[in-house]
C-alpha cells in the first residue's frame, strides 16, 4: 500500500519555516522544507489539517500559531461537524485545526491525532481512480465529493475534496495559479497527479 512518508513545503526561508512550525504546532518529522522562489498566486489547491481531541486543543494550537506569525482565515467556532479554525502560515500554507467534539473533556493539550493533507481536485472520481492505480487504498468515499485513503503507518493521511469546496472550507477564493509549493514523498516512482501535485520517492526527498 502506498502512503505518505513526508511532506516538503517549498518556502522562501526554510530555517524560518522550521522555527514557525515547531513553535506553532510542534511538528517535526512530518514536514520538510526547501527553498523555492517559484511563483504562486492565490489558493495553492491544498490544505493541511491537524485533528485533535477537543475544542481546547484547537484553541491552544491556533493560539500559538497566531503568536508565531500566522494570520486568521477562520476564527475557531462551532459547526455541525464539531469545532475548528483555519490559519495561514507565514509561508502561505493553509492549516486547519479541528475536532469532531463540541465539548471539552479535560485540560488543553498540544497533542494531535493526525495530520491530513487535503488536495483540492477538479474531479474527485478521476483522482480517486488515479491514486488507487498508484497503490493507495480507499478508506472512505462519498461519491464525487470526498475521498479519504488509508494511512497505514504513515504520519500523514491523504484525502481528496473538490477544489471550490476546499477553498470555501478554508475561507479563501478558489482561484490560484503557479506552483503548489508542496511535494509529497512516499511513491515507489515519482509522478505528478491530474491536478499537478508532484510526488517523489522518499529517497529523492531526503536528498532535497
TrEMBL record:
InterPro entries: Glyas_Bleomycin-R_OHBP_Dase (IPR029068). It comes from the Bacteria. This is Glyoxalase. It comes from Amycolatopsis nalaikhensis. The lineage of its organism: Bacteria, Bacillati, Actinomycetota, Actinomycetes, Pseudonocardiales.
Amino acid at each position: 500500500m502506498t502512503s505518505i512518508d513526508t511532506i516538503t513545503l517549498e518556502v522562501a526561508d526554510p530555517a524560518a519555516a522550521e522555527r514557525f512550525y515547531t513553535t506553532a504546532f510542534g511538528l517535526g518529522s512530518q514536514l520538510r522544507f526547501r527553498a523555492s522562489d517559484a511563483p504562486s498566486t492565490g489558493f495553492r489547491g491544498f490544505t493541511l489539517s491537524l485533528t485533535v481531541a477537543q475544542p481546547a486543543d484547537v484553541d491552544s494550537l491556533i493560539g500559538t500559531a497566531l503568536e508565531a506569525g500566522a494570520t486568521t482565515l477562520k476564527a475557531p467556532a462551532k459547526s455541525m461537524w464539531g469545532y475548528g479554525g483555519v490559519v495561514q502560515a507565514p509561508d502561505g500554507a493553509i492549516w486547519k485545526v479541528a475536532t469532531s467534539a463540541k465539548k471539552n473533556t479535560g485540560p488543553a493539550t498540544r497533542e494531535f491525532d493526525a495530520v491530513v493533507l487535503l488536495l483540492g481536485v477538479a474531479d474527485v472520481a478521476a483522482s480517486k481512480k488515479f491514486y488507487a492505480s498508484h497503490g493507495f487504498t480507499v478508506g472512505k468515499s462519498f461519491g464525487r465529493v470526498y475521498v479519504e485513503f488509508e494511512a497505514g503507518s504513515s504520519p500523514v493521511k491523504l484525502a481528496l475534496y473538490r477544489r471550490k469546496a476546499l477553498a470555501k472550507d478554508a475561507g479563501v477564493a478558489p482561484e490560484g495559479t503557479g506552483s503548489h509549493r508542496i511535494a509529497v514523498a512516499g511513491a515507489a516512482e515519482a509522478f505528478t497527479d491530474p491536478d499537478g501535485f508532484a510526488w517523489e520517492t522518499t529517497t529523492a526527498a531526503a536528498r532535497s
